[in-house]
Amino acid sequence: MRGRYFFVFVRVLIGMVYIISGAEKLLQPYENFLYIVEEYDIIPFAAVERVIAATFPWLEYFLGGFLILGLWTRECLACIGMFSCVFIIVVGQAIVRGLPLAECGCFGDLVGMSLTATFMIDIIILLLVILCLCFYRKGTILWSLDRYWE
Q1: Exposure pattern of 39-54 as b/e (b: 16+ CB <10 Å)?
Q2: Does some domain include residue 150?
Q3: Distance from the Cα of residue 95 to its chain's centroid
Q4: Residue 111, beta-bridge partner list
Q5: Is residue 106 part of a domain?
Q6: Does residue 113 sit within a domain?
Q7: Three-state SS for 84?
Q8: Structural domain count, the chain
Q9: Which of 29, 75, 81, 85 fits a disulfide with 129 by CB distance 3.0 to 4.6 angstroms?
């Protein structure tokens, strides 16, 4: 029974990381995050960069909130897993290319992290998401709203 609480803790922890990350970007001017997206120099179209800068903070915020509540937990974990894969690729290519980024921009002005630290954290989040998805029935659903709709 004690191991089940680990999954609740992980679910809430990942949800809080995503809520804080999304909220910090939403509280800052839109152009701040747009500048960060442009600095990674991976998307060739300015219109796509603007769409990403406008939508990603909202997606992070709501995915984190739903994950904490345990609402559509499996779907939120899958989306966060895909986000983590994208973040790993984007940050990884910036490291390999030696882009002159002082910090990742993941948490806006709240926390500044190096690209290497961000890369490692994204890998850890991805591994935790995979672990939660593998043990979804036994652990992650505990203390969630999903329990009431099954």
Answers
A1: ebeeeeeeeebbebbe
A2: no
A3: 19
A4: 107
A5: yes
A6: yes
A7: helix
A8: 1
A9: 81
DSSP letter string, 8-76: HHHHHHHHHHHHHHHHHHHHS-HHHHHHHHHHT---S-HHHHHHHHHHHHHHHHHHHHHHHHTSSHHHH
The boundaries of the domain holding residue 39 are: 2-141
Nearest-angstrom CA–CA distance, 58 and 88? 20
Predicted confidence pLDDT, tens digits, the chain (150 residues): 566 788 889 999 999 999 999 999 999 998 999 999 999 989 999 999 999 999 999 999 999 999 999 999 999 999 999 999 999 999 999 999 999 888 888 877 777 788 999 999 999 999 999 998 887 666 667 778 887 776
Within-domain flag for 86: yes
Tell me the two tokens of residue 3: 């191991």
Cα end-to-end distance, the chain, whole Å:
21
